[in-house]
Amino acid sequence: MSSLFIFLPIHRYDSRAISSGKRSGPFIHNWQALRASGYNETMKLKRRYIILSLTAIVFGILFYCVDLTVAVETIRNAQPVYLVLAFLLMCSYPVWCAIRWNLIANQIGARLGFRQSFIIIMAAWPLGTITPAKSGDLIKVLFLKNILPYSKTTGVILAERMMDVVALCIYGASAGLIYGFYRASLFTGILLMGVLLFFVIAASPLVNWAPEKWRSLIQNVLEASMAIYRNLGTFFGILLITLVNWFCSILQTWCCYKAFQAEVPIFYIAAALPIAIFIGLIPVTLSGMGTRDSAMIFLFQKYAPYETNLAVGILYSIFGYWLLAIIGVPFMKAALGGSIKNIHGDSIRHELFSSERID
Predict the structure, then answer these.
(1) Rg, the chain, Cα only
(2) Other beta carbons within 10 Å of 15
(3) How wide is the angle at C-alpha 100 spanned by C-alphas 98 and 106, nearest 5°?
């Protein structure tokens, strides 16, 4: 809490007012700022406890319905070859993400290169895993604080997430039509049109109609999306990388089902998995755990028993989040130590662990 005083404006106080217990105007302002900061920290702590509690409750309900005998037998008969393939597919995720991050950052003038982009992606993975809806990805804002303004880095993150939604919707809509899962096709198709509309608006003159005090901020946040949409070659290049990345995730899910000897058509996985992922983005549990697993149990119930679907859902979380988060811890320490070009580790630690607001 003492670090808060660094960011409070220094004023001269009336010694008589202080000694008498009366607070002058600046004193009241700073005192109120301290109270507000303490309140915000308390609320953040409460939210974390609530999210952890909800995650535990959801998993408690899920495991309560498990037949332990069937679950043990399912795990015992798992085929390790497919689990190894699933692990190898997991290793490709940060590579594709780093290539995409570098391409998007290049659109707004940040020449990072693959190595720097890979460090940033891996360094952000641990925090992105322990926060709801991967909001921890915003730590990338601090990693690039000496290279890009906060608003522009936020815009790169936004463009990255929008491309994820586009890729998932393409898989959901097209695979849903091929397999005959028309509800999935309708849902993802509507969502896809909404995201494409966002890109059109971001690249249109409508942004200039925003209130003057917000216009510059909005333009900075949308700059990466504007650049991507206005350059079709870049748009389809980034989309192709994103499609390959999510195809690896779909194939990994197929491998997990094969490991438990469940035959699930890959087109059905491509149609249903995006819905489960979108449900997992609802910020009520840790990294979507529990909510995404519940969705997978419901969506895949006609192809596999309850215990198998739960096991696959847990494996999806382990491969897609927790293992990479553990691997990312050294990268996070390296980033905080200043290993990213043009970034000073002390400066990042100062902002990351202080209560200064990021504008």
Answers:
(1) 23
(2) 8
(3) 100
